[in-house]
């Protein structure tokens, strides 16, 4: 029997309450495929392409370009040509009538980040999903926080228990970073895993978090089921110190926006709200000192202090590296010459935030490794 399928405003991250439909890429009457980019959506965190969750003819567009609507609002309707307009009208009317109540229930049930004492410091984390088996632990990079996984954690939480952690010095965690090197951050992750009772995890780390994930896999392999290192540090000496210094030292929105645009292939993905979020974080007590210390130790002299590539052949668990071909922070060439057991996926039209720009592809890679 033919069905009518709603396409709604997605929820990308806990902070997202609404989104602006910046542009449609498909017209009414056009057949669309599942996973096809059908629209651009701008949120308070980042702008991104929206991939259709269903396939079929796009029969109705309910939201115009430039219009802002709440999460869960009806954007469009997909239905077979055999379904009449009256049936679609009735579907839309019933959906809109029940939307307010369902949205209120969803808001009440939304999970919130938690705080835990681990290793003598307070760490913030977000837990999503509840499943048997080995959980997935997301570890962000320099200057980031758990919200960097807003396009990834919910997808993996459909089949796994997942955790996204704020590293020391970042997000809502304590700003004490100890010695500030990768080893100190690795120890903090170990403390966190012990505190929440994670005996073993699939690690997913980005940039500095990728180096931390690889370091943990090498130093404490019993705790690690697999590693997905996304544009990881510690695989080569080069790094854009202009980005690191600019991120730490810039306090003006316009200048910071140009710095953050270095992270992505498409600069339009960096929104003004994203810039303001970073500025608010940088104004927190202790942040400047924490970032400066981490950078001075990990990237002394504009080079990466830790180089793990020679040791990757020692990894005892499945491992993969994912990179954006247009990365301007850490060159994709660092992914060359990996051991045969460590696979490399290079995604086109993506920069350093490849897990955000090509979320569906990266999520599929993570899920495949975590399912093994």
Keywords:
16 strands; 10 helices; alpha/beta; single chain; eight-stranded mixed sheet; four-stranded antiparallel sheet; 372 residues
Report on the structure:
The protein is α/β, with parallel strands linked by helices and 372 residues long. 30% of the residues lie in helices and 23% in strands. The protein contains ten helices and 16 strands. The chain has an eight-stranded mixed β-sheet, with helices on both faces. It has a four-stranded antiparallel β-sheet with strand order 1-8-6-3, with helices on one face. A four-stranded antiparallel β-sheet has the order 5-4-2-7, with no helix packed on it. Strand 11, helix 2 and strand 12 form a beta-alpha-beta unit. Helix 6 crosses helix 7.
The helix/strand order is: EEEEEEEEHEEEHEHEHEHHHHEEHH
Q: Which runs of at least 5 residues are low in confidence (pLDDT < 50)? A: none
Taking the sheet with the most strands, its summary is: 8 strands, mixed
Order of strands across the main sheet: 9-10-12-11-13-14-15-16
């Amino acid at each position: 029997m033919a069905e009518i399928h709603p396409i709604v405003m997605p929820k990308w991250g806990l902070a997202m309450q609404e989104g602006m439909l910046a542009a449609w890429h498909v017209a009414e009457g056009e057949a669309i495929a599942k996973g096809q980019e059908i629209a651009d959506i701008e949120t308070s965190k980042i702008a991104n392409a929206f991939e259709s969750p269903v396939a079929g003819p796009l029969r109705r567009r309910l939201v115009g370009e430039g219009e802002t609507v709440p999460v869960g609002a009806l954007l469009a309707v997909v239905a077979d040509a055999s379904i009449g307009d009256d049936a679609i009208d009735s579907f839309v009317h019933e959906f809109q009538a029940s939307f307010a109540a369902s949205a209120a229930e969803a808001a009440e049930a939304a999970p919130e980040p938690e705080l835990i004492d681990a290793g003598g410091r307070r760490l913030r984390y977000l837990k999503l999903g509840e499943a048997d088996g080995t959980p997935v632990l997301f570890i962000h990079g320099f200057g980031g926080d758990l919200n960097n996984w807003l396009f990834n954690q919910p997808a993996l939480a459909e089949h796994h228990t997942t955790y996204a952690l704020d590293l020391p010095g970042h997000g809502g965690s304590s700003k004490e970073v100890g010695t500030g090197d990768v080893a100190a951050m690795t120890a903090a992750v170990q403390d966190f895993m012990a505190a929440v009772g994670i005996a073993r995890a699939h690690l997913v780390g980005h940039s500095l978090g990728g180096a931390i994930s690889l370091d943990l896999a090498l130093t404490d392999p019993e705790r690690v089921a697999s590693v997905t290192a996304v544009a990881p540090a510690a695989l080569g000496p080069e790094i854009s110190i202009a980005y690191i210094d600019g991120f730490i030292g810039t306090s003006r929105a316009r200048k910071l926006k140009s710095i953050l645009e270095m992270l992505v292939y498409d600069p339009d993905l960096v929104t003004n709200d994203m810039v303001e979020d970073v500025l608010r974080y940088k104004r927190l007590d202790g942040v400047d000192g924490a970032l400066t210390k981490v950078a001075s130790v990990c990237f002394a002299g504009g080079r990466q202090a830790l180089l793990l590539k020679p040791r990757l052949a020692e990894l005892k668990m499945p491992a993969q590296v994912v990179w954006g071909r247009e990365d301007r922070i850490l060159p994709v060439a660092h992914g060359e010459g990996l051991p045969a057991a460590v696979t490399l996926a290079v995604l086109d039209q993506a920069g350093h935030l490849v897990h955000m720009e090509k979320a569906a592809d990266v999520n599929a890679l993570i899920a495949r490794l975590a399912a093994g």
